[in-house]
Write a structure and sequence with these properties.
mainly alpha; 174 residues; 6% strand; two-stranded parallel ribbon
């Protein structure tokens, strides 16, 4: 499903993909279709030697930190799950790149309906995926709504000031 979604969004087999994940059960079987669609797919285990990974191997948080760092600095980040990892990444990328990070957050409810339709043709599927990509690929700093997480939508007023004069004004007054 992830491969079809990415292909529908316009990514082709020449796209470099980094898959951030833990151990995938029966990965040879379940990853084969995705590898066929995207042969340039890489994981930390494919990019680093066993010796390079050995200091991190028995620590899941350290292994996740490798994935986090790669995703943080990637050209495009596509999240396919919820949880803290993508929420922190969304906010960190938004803050780091001044709201101009290319991040795709597919609408999971719409995806479920689309994938559940056995009669959908490729043209319709692709149109819906491109629409979903353009909607979630919008850039700029979003204003935090009351129920939004501060981690995924950092409010500029709450972050460190960009202008040094604002910092000096606040520190000069007791």
């Amino acid at each position: 499903q992830v491969g079809l979604m990415l292909r529908g969004m316009g990514f082709d087999r020449n796209t470099n993909i980094y898959l951030a994940s833990g151990k995938i059960y029966n990965s040879e079987r379940y990853m084969a279709p995705l590898l066929d669609m995207f042969p340039l797919l890489q994981t930390k285990e494919m990019l680093a030697s066993p010796d390079e990974l050995s200091p991190f191997q028995n620590y899941s948080s350290r292994m996740a930190a490798i994935d986090y760092t790669v995703c943080l600095h990637s050209e495009v980040f596509v999240t396919t799950q919820g949880g803290n990892f993508p929420h922190f990444l969304l906010g960190h990328r938004r803050f780091l790149y001044g709201g101009h990070s290319r991040t795709i957050r597919p609408d999971k409810r719409k995806l479920a309906v689309i994938f559940d339709n056995p009669n959908i043709g490729w043209k319709s599927f692709k149109r819906q995926m491109l629409n979903m990509r353009s909607h979630s690929d919008s850039k700029g700093i979003e204003l935090k709504r009351p129920n939004d997480s501060i981690y995924s939508v950092p409010c500029p007023d709450c972050m460190c000031r960009v202008n040094g004069t604002e910092d000096s004004k606040s520190s000069s007054h007791p």
